[in-house]
Design goal:
The chain has helices at about 10-20, 35-55, 60-70, 75-80, 95-105, 125, 130-135, 165-175, 190-210, 215-220, 225-230, 235-240, 245-255, 265-270, 290-310; strands at about 5-10, 25-30, 70-75, 85-90, 115, 140-145, 150-155, 180-185. By secondary structure, the protein is of the alpha/beta class. A hairpin with an 8-residue loop joins β6 (about 140-145) and β7. α2 packs antiparallel against α3.
Length: about 325
């Protein structure tokens, strides 16, 4: 049974993953090799947790308990030597991850389950240097950002591990209130990111062709498809509309929609000119650097409100499905 958890990497995703487990009572060790990051990360996690308390997702006593459940360290061996489950949230560099998992294989107990938060690297490649026995206890567990709010975690089941281990990890995520997706093939992007990139490709193409303003493109998505996607998925939406209609519209539209195999030139042009979005003050929109923290907080607040609403759909009634 999984009780002791290590998170490897205390960056944007890692610290958020750690606080998720900690606020549900798990014993968590958070590792990073950057001493400066380790020195500041507890304050950042406290800020995240206080925000959740402010939004009534947790109470103030949970903030205190969660922080007590987390220990930080720059000593990899100390972080992992007694852990049941380890999730790696290091930068998306294959050689780095291969070396890290090789070290973890040597430092961890035999029963420990390894997971990577990657969404772009192959599990087979990442576990190249671990023992055959460890390969049976290794998987991808991909979270969505911000991890302490977004309910989705994608779990790999690629044929390298017994179903009993998958079920144990799935139960772990259900115990912290996450919605899990069982991914059956080792494909780049898994499920959610592939869907997201499909939408993004057409959005960028519409901008490139100047079909509508940035504001109206956003409005079309937010108050059209995305409005429905907040409560149900594409397959049920298609069933509701009629598959014959979707087939006809697909025949008419798909042949004139973007099908390029690389990033949109408009996107690349902005990157090359240093317009990277909020981090540089301009992307498709312009941002006052002083207001960016509040913009991000308001975005998180909207996600929290959606999370509260989604509680009504978490165990979705499928009584109408025979």
């Amino acid at each position: 049974m999984i009780q002791k958890i290590a998170v490897i990497g205390a960056g944007t995703m890692g610290h958020s993953i750690a606080e998720n487990f900690a606020m549900h009572g798990y014993d968590v060790k958070l590792y990073d090799l950057d001493e400066n990051r380790i020195a500041s990360v507890m304050d950042e996690m406290k800020e995240d947790l206080c925000f959740l308390a402010e939004e009534k997702l947790i109470d103030s006593s949970t903030v205190v308990k969660a922080l007590q459940n987390i220990r930080t360290t720059t000593d990899l061996a100390a972080a992992v030597s007694d852990r049941d489950y380890l999730i790696e949230a290091a930068p998306e560099n294959l050689a780095l991850k291969q070396n890290l998992f090789r070290q973890l294989d040597e430092l961890c107990p035999d029963h420990a389950i390894f997971a990577s938060n990657t969404s772009s690297l192959s599990l087979e490649d990442m576990m190249k240097d671990v023992t055959e026995k460890r390969r049976q206890r290794m998987m991808v567990n991909h979270w969505y950002n911000p991890a302490h709010i977004m309910p989705l975690v994608e779990l790999s089941f690629f044929g390298n591990m017994p179903e009993s281990i998958f079920t144990e990890v799935e139960a772990l995520y259900k115990s912290i209130g996450k919605q899990t997706v069982k991914v059956l093939k080792d494909v780049p992007g898994l499920v959610a990111n592939r869907i997201q990139q499909g939408v993004a490709r057409e959005v960028f193409s519409i901008m490139e062709q100047e079909i509508a303003s940035p504001e109206d493109v956003e409005k079309a998505l937010m108050f059209g498809p995305a409005f429905r996607y907040a409560t149900t998925g594409q397959l049920e939406i298609a069933d509701m509309g009629g598959l014959d209609i979707w087939c006809t519209v697909g025949d008419n539209l798909l042949k004139v929609m973007d099908n390029r195999q690389s990033a949109n030139p408009l996107l690349r042009e902005k990157v090359e000119s240093g317009k990277l979005g909020m981090k540089t003050g301009e992307g498709f929109f312009k941002y006052n650097p002083a207001k960016v923290p509040e913009i991000k907080k308001q975005f998180a607040r909207k996600l929290v409100h959606q999370l509260k609403a989604s509680a009504f759909y978490k165990e979705k009634d499928k009584s109408h499905v025979k």
